[in-house]
Amino acid sequence: MSIEEKVDINSELKQIDKRLNQIREEISLLESERDVLLSRKKVCSNKLKDLMPSSSGGNNTDLTIDWNRTDFEWSQDARKNLKETFKLENFRPLQLETINVTLSKIDCLVIMPTGGGKSLCFQLPALIDTGLTLVVSPLVSLMEDQLWLLKSLNINADTLNSTSSKDHVTKIHSQMLDNKSSLKILYVTPEKLAKSKIFMNKLQKMYEAGRFKRLVVDEVHCCSTYGHDFRPDYKFLGVMKQVFPNICILGLTATATQSVIDDVKKILSIPKCVLFKASFNRPNLFYEIKQKPSSHEEFINELATLIKKKFSQQSGIVYCFSQKESSQVAIDLCSRGIKAGCYHASMDALERSKVHEKWLKNQVHVIVATIAFGMGIDKQDCRFVIHHSLSKSLENFYQESGRAGRDGKTAHSILFFRFADVFRQSTMVFTEQTGLENLYSIVNYCIDKKTCKRILIAKHFNDDVWEKNGDCNQMCDHCKDTNSNQIEKIDVFEEACFVLSVLENTKSDKKLTSNKLAELVYSGIVSKNKKSNYYPNNLNQTEVENLILTMLMNSYLKEDFHFTPYNTICYVVAGPLSKHLRNDSCFYIDRTSSHSSKAASIEKLAKPELAEKNESKELKTRKRNLDMNASSDSCELIFDQNNSEIMPKSKKVLW
């Protein structure tokens, strides 16, 4: 073989290798896009399923019944108990229908918004029926709250839980089997059913004696792994229909998509149950997002001022991310003259009960709590719920905020949003099946500047009735401030590409936290605009953070989690669609017309605006690529100088 032939073959091999590398890159891009599309397809399929009526709906005979009738054999007793026992004049929407179904011994699921009156749906029937209604409730605090209310109405109800004494347990077991007992409602935790064979034996005897009238599953969404608050012990409830085939089951929740509903029906073996679903709208609740100050001291001062000026001497809840924060915030509020009490799971049960009771009696005005102060908390005159930190999902936020304004009077839901809190929360939820997806739903709720808060909630829960016909009546910050704050859509394509270039130009053995990435991007924009108006949008720090979040939720960025002996660290890296961004020509975020002073100061530093608006896409791309190469060293230098923030020594979860 001649030298020329060898050269030709080697040249061809190089061309083949080059093309193979190109194909590998193209395949990698396509695989990334496929993964994103498959994930998106799953989300869209679930949403479509949520919009469709359940395939396992009520049976044919039930569909023809008007459950709103008032001529059932128990109708007069129901109306009498409503007025004389519960001191109410009228039923709320779907209460009468639910009462009629469960008294007809038919299984039923009810999805009703917080404050909609779910508890009455089983408390009133329990007074009409002979025998006992068993209520499964997930939290001791929830049971205590309802027991306190029932006893104030002279209704004989009790509870069995981990704190019950032996004498109390013996007394309850005796009442369960006593035909002359006046005990009407018994609250238990799901753990009591799952782990106590003695209690299950008593239920069996009560069932055989005809005294077990109804099984109520409160917060029934906890049965489903698709739900936002799955609890393993709720799975045990699946055996109840097998052991007690003729028992009537009533499931109640404030939040459930169609996927959760279908899963619950399957788990509880109630495929032909009657389903009632009310609108999720709380017309008396004002929804508001506030930017959270960066320092704790600033936040506490703003919070204390807000409570004193707007909610003086009124009842409310402040939800915090951690037990430590809830304790500290409570102390800080007390030091500023606000009657506040702390509530979290590590407190002694008796201490928690005392704080709860003081709040119910208005001896304490503000409960500062973790989510342990949770489902079913019912104080009618609670005027506000303030979130110190981001909830882990829109479902959680909806339930937590819904604890305000249950008396129908105007109340407020205020969420303090901060960029860093997103990544703090993500380190806690990323191991859950849909943890990040659920978290991003509440992030979108917070950074969406142009959509009514009620519409965002309605879309999430597929509340098509309200979405089509409802009116916010200026009961959210967006609708109220529409005239004063005009929202404009701005193209931040160049800035988005710069975000990716910062990640690409970071040394291979280094990674960036969300805070560090935002810092580098913002400082890079400021630096460039001092020399030339390269980024004419003049994004301020908050807008840079919103850009990063928008890229994250659209798969141009993704979170990368790492475990250490003491914590979980979240880094931000290029996402599966990052390489597709440069094939686009635009990328939008929203901005209020009243641009911040930071952006204004940048604009003063910038030189006169360059005529980039009419540049071709190709020219912009060439300039951007040149800029990426030129800025590589400076990006690495900035990163190295601030490397200490990448791996703090703190044992707390990083964000």
Automatic annotation (TrEMBL):
<dbReference type="InterPro" id="IPR014001">
    <property type="entry name" value="Helicase_ATP-bd"/>
</dbReference>
<keyword id="KW-0347">Helicase</keyword>
<keyword id="KW-0175">Coiled coil</keyword>
<dbReference type="Pfam" id="PF00271">
    <property type="entry name" value="Helicase_C"/>
</dbReference>
<protein>
    <recommendedName>
        <fullName>ATP-dependent DNA helicase</fullName>
        <ecNumber>5.6.2.4</ecNumber>
    </recommendedName>
</protein>
<keyword id="KW-0862">Zinc</keyword>
<feature type="domain" description="Helicase ATP-binding">
    <location>
        <begin position="99"/>
        <end position="274"/>
    </location>
</feature>
<dbReference type="GO" id="GO:0005737">
    <property type="term" value="C:cytoplasm"/>
</dbReference>
<dbReference type="GO" id="GO:0046872">
    <property type="term" value="F:metal ion binding"/>
</dbReference>
<dbReference type="InterPro" id="IPR032284">
    <property type="entry name" value="RecQ_Zn-bd"/>
</dbReference>
<keyword id="KW-0378">Hydrolase</keyword>
<keyword id="KW-0067">ATP-binding</keyword>
<dbReference type="InterPro" id="IPR036388">
    <property type="entry name" value="WH-like_DNA-bd_sf"/>
</dbReference>
<dbReference type="GO" id="GO:0005694">
    <property type="term" value="C:chromosome"/>
</dbReference>
<dbReference type="GO" id="GO:0005634">
    <property type="term" value="C:nucleus"/>
</dbReference>
<keyword id="KW-0479">Metal-binding</keyword>
<comment type="similarity">
    <text>Belongs to the helicase family. RecQ subfamily.</text>
</comment>
<keyword id="KW-0547">Nucleotide-binding</keyword>
<dbReference type="InterPro" id="IPR011545">
    <property type="entry name" value="DEAD/DEAH_box_helicase_dom"/>
</dbReference>
<dbReference type="GO" id="GO:0000724">
    <property type="term" value="P:double-strand break repair via homologous recombination"/>
</dbReference>
<dbReference type="InterPro" id="IPR001650">
    <property type="entry name" value="Helicase_C-like"/>
</dbReference>
<dbReference type="GO" id="GO:0016787">
    <property type="term" value="F:hydrolase activity"/>
</dbReference>
<keyword id="KW-0413">Isomerase</keyword>
<dbReference type="GO" id="GO:0009378">
    <property type="term" value="F:four-way junction helicase activity"/>
</dbReference>
<dbReference type="InterPro" id="IPR027417">
    <property type="entry name" value="P-loop_NTPase"/>
</dbReference>
<dbReference type="GO" id="GO:0005524">
    <property type="term" value="F:ATP binding"/>
</dbReference>
<keyword id="KW-0238">DNA-binding</keyword>
<dbReference type="Pfam" id="PF00270">
    <property type="entry name" value="DEAD"/>
</dbReference>
<feature type="coiled-coil region">
    <location>
        <begin position="6"/>
        <end position="40"/>
    </location>
</feature>
<feature type="domain" description="Helicase C-terminal">
    <location>
        <begin position="299"/>
        <end position="447"/>
    </location>
</feature>
<dbReference type="GO" id="GO:0003677">
    <property type="term" value="F:DNA binding"/>
</dbReference>
<dbReference type="GO" id="GO:0043138">
    <property type="term" value="F:3'-5' DNA helicase activity"/>
</dbReference>
<dbReference type="Pfam" id="PF16124">
    <property type="entry name" value="RecQ_Zn_bind"/>
</dbReference>
<keyword id="KW-0539">Nucleus</keyword>
<dbReference type="InterPro" id="IPR004589">
    <property type="entry name" value="DNA_helicase_ATP-dep_RecQ"/>
</dbReference>
